[in-house]
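Reviewer 2 asked us to include a model.

Predict the structure of this chain.
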Amino acid sequence: MEAAATLADLELCDAREWRLGPDRLWCLTPVRNGVCHTVPDLSRDVIWFDGEPPRVSDRTVEPVRTALVEGSSVVGIRFAPSVVSIELDPRWDGWSAASTSERLRLLERALADGALRVEADPVFDAVLTSLDRAEVRMREVAAGLGVSERQLLRWTNRTVGLTPKQLHRFLRVRRFWEAGPGSPLAVRSAEAGFYDQSHASNEIVAITGLRP
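Predicted model (structure tokens):
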């Protein structure tokens, strides 16, 4: 599954991103002081602010509001939801980079050199793929994975702290964001698997804190 992009207020930031296979290298450059709102989409990031060492974010299951300062920049990599482990080697000398372009280049190099180690879980990826549909029956999802509903519930709770039904809700909102930004809201709602536009609006506000 591909990672969704960070949602930034484009009047606040110059926001750019580049593909790194299934992941995304990104950069935010504030044009004024303000707050960037990140949509929760089950992804995880390595985030690198000016003058600070990089850090690993928690899985985004709630909206994240980040204060940004004009004249600074923030770079990072957003990893797909199937990634369950991210480790930074604090001894690597590349973490002392200063400029924006250098930090972007070194994040790629850190992955190649093993200073940034990422582990995806193929089982979790299979769970997400099974749940990423307009309509799902948990009994059928569990059977397709060769486990009981109770085992599936325990496994997802232990792995990411969410139930299969909660994961399905997040994935449905992800599909809404990815369903052609230029399309009418009613069309995007139907394509994502919501009952109607009102249902989509209520779910999106509940999960992201944003109106569609």
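Residues 164-178 form the longest helix (15 residues). Helices lie at 100-113, 122-131, 138-145, 149-160, 164-178, 185-192, 197-208. We have added this to the supplementary material.
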